[in-house]
Amino acid sequence: MFKKIRTRPVIMDHDGSADDFLSLILLLSMEHIDLLGVSITPADCYLENALETTLKLLTKAKRTNIEIGIGHFHGINAFPADWRAKPKILNALPDLIGIDTNPDPSAFRNSQELIIEKLLTAQETVTVLLTGPCSSLVQAIEREPKILNHIAEVVWMGGAFDVPGNVVTYNHNSTAEWNVFWDPISAKSLLAHQIPVIFIPLDVTNHVPVTIDFLKKLANQSSQSWANLAGQFWATTLDTIPTYEYTYFMWDVLATSFLHIPEAFTLEEAEVDIVTQGASAGRTYRKANSGYHAKVATDVNKKLFYNYLLGALSTTY
Ligand code: AGV
Ligand code: CA
Fold it and tell me: Which domain covers residue 302, as residue numbers?
């Protein structure tokens, strides 16, 4: 069968929550994407768990040639421990528990080194997809500024511009989104490096909740093993704290979809900035005429997105 040539090189940096892995699954399904490496940031996860899940998924997809890097920086504002522990469940799901990986973290390269090497040796400029904090990428840039010219764009699930944030914690006023709050200093540095950044913030992810209706549709396709696994992953998110209503969103999954269905998104060119300290730490905001240039996704064609997702998860690869 004719297959689209793999054309677009991508590096993914994720932080090991359930939707980060759903994003990895989605990325592996994209035939036009050449995934150069996967870096793990120990933010919304514990590193050992996230490394294990990452390796299990690459093994299941027969893509263990994709190199994994691990971050050693632990951020400024830690994620709650119960959120970090939660995705450990994924490793025990029936479809994954039998995949024996047992990775030793000390055998893996540091994220910065992985990012630097993959960018410098790529044949063309690379898209960097961030579904967690941006610290590893920024540390890599600071260590080897030459990589700046090798980055086509950074697609980042992060920020909350014209909507409330999702950080609810001591000494904070909830104006920030978690991926930015974890390391607001790096987030501001990323903008200061003036590479093209496309934010997929809460402004647009709020439009796409993970609904029970969607999960039922997905379950109708569960004869396909990725659809089945994805349904199980999402099922683990049903008790998401802090609300009594089910409000898990397609955060990282939406950002990842941008690589396949950019036409579904409305992007705005904006000048923005980031607060690094105090009660608004991690807040991303508009700063007309004197901010950093960035693109901000403000809307998405929901029907196109959910249909794309159901289609992508029901293919075999
Ligand atoms: O702010 C959204 C980011 C996404 O990268 N993460 C989860 C997604 O992976 C942090 C987050 C916000 N609310 C959460 C989060 C919750 N209730 N549980 C776990 N993580
Ligand atoms: Ca994430």
Answer: 8-313
Q: Identify the nearest ligand to the CA of 41 by its number.
A: 2
Residue 2 lies in a domain: no
By alpha-carbon position, which residue is closest to atom 18 of ligand 1? Answer: 83
Token pair, residue 292, equals: 């950093």
Per the domain annotation, does 3 fall within a domain? Answer: no
- For the whole prediction, is pTM greater than 0.85? yes
Q: Tens digit of pLDDT for each residue in 27-77?
A: 999 999 999 999 999 999 999 999 999 999 999 999 999 999 999 999 999
Q: What is the pLDDT of residues 88-106, one digit of tens each?
A: 999 999 999 999 999 999 9
Ranges of beta strands (E only) in 165-246 are 197-199
Q: What is the CATH number of the domain that holds 139?
A: 3.90.245.10
The protein residue with its alpha carbon nearest to ligand 1, atom 10, reads: 178
Q: Which atom of ligand 1 is nearest to the CA of 241?
A: 17
Q: Is residue 1 part of a domain?
A: no
